Prior knowledge:
By secondary structure, the chain is mainly β. It is built from 4 helices and 28 strands. A hairpin with a 3-residue loop joins strand 3 and strand 4. The longest helix has 9 residues, at 59-67. It is globular and about 75 Å long.
Amino acid sequence: NGRGILQNTNLKSTLIEHTLNYNNKVGIGMLDALVGYSYQRYQNFSDVNIGWGQKVGSFKKDMDAFANHLPYINGDSTRSELQSYFGRVNYSIADKYFFTGTLRVDGSTKFAKKNRYGYFPAFAFKWKLMNENFLSKDVFDDLSVRLNWGQTGNQEFPGLATKAVSRRNYNGDVEQINAANPNLKWETTMQYGIGLDYAILKGRVSGSIDYFNKETTDLLFYANYAQPAAAKRRWVNLPGKVKNTGVEFGINVLIVQRNAFTWESLYNMAFLKNRVEDFGDNNIQTGSISGKGLSGAYSQAIRNGYPLGSFYMQSAAGFDSQGHTIFLNDGLLTMQGSALPKFNFGWTNNFTYKNWNASLFVNGSSGFYVYNNTANALFSKATLAGGGNVDYKVFRSNEAKDNPPAVTTNYLEKGDFIRISNFSVGYTFNLKPESKIRALRLSLSGQNLFLFTDYSGLDPEVNTNKAIDGVPSIGIDYTAYPNPRTFTFGVNASF
């Protein structure tokens, strides 16, 4: 005797798309235009059958017996449609001035009729200064300025969010799982920026510089409903906006170009700033913390004036003479650093020497924090007193074995790092024309070779899923498996 579960899932997607293009000289420039229509339909059907029966022999007989004892059937059937009209116009003049304009009109059945359609325009302009007479061709091989502004929409949420949805539970009772919100509307992201492309020294040095400002409003969010109510949660558009600004810089340099040896270096870096604005007094909690005595604890909050991924906890400064945590600011919860880096960089070097080639990639981030939930939950004097394993730092600390566990800055660490992410080397053989092997190449590569960081955990690039009520968290380390170090040897041959 036993319980059996039979689950069926059927997903179906249909896409119809039509486009019309036009390209011709119009006035003093060239016009390239496109208009189009797109229709998508998504269908989902699933059912879960739970029953009890007795094993009688063959698989078919077992399934027949199971089918005759199905006291509980649960299922879901949803359909959503997306209808889009779109157009794009490119207009260029004298290979100097380039204009682009686009418009998307997207309509989704996920929204109520009054908010069904979203309108998302975008514009871009490029001025190729290189082709102007006043610019010296002896200095620049390319110099262009770019401007852009545009909007995009997001409707990634369940299809019945605007309606009241109910289901029958295991006891046969009907329960409402979603409250209707007919006012739900498109989440919109607006972005504008300015950029510069350049090339000098006959193209041996080239790159770009970009500034961007990105703002997301009407954020779609699955929020808790004030109780008592028929449903615990509903989808809403949050007030305020999430603002991302930054500067990106990239440069490519052909350092050496000889017959037998070349060396190319590519470097990029970005300075980033994230901030929640116009959010009022809302305080959304996430980042649950695991460990004995930490049930219900959390470590992050979304609040006005702070970045996403900001840590929200008690400030602490080690342990007092009795071995108990020293709390600052009267033990009040305060906003701490964010798990989002303020600076990222990547550096690639490519080498060739006769039949040899090699590549080295280094990357890093700084200006962010990691919460070491592993240490918070496992590395304490209480764990040691109970016969558990701890690291040497805990063994030497003056913490008392009865020190109550808490979410504090004692376990919040800087995550700055530099990583040698990849190194590869290869050799291509010169083969005689009469050889049966036409080509032969050997290669060796290594991933995640070296990590330089002051973070006490295994790897600062970690993100254990510690969401609360579907609100994502970032930058929490809890018994996470570190990035592996791998080596690969390859042989490529053709005959």
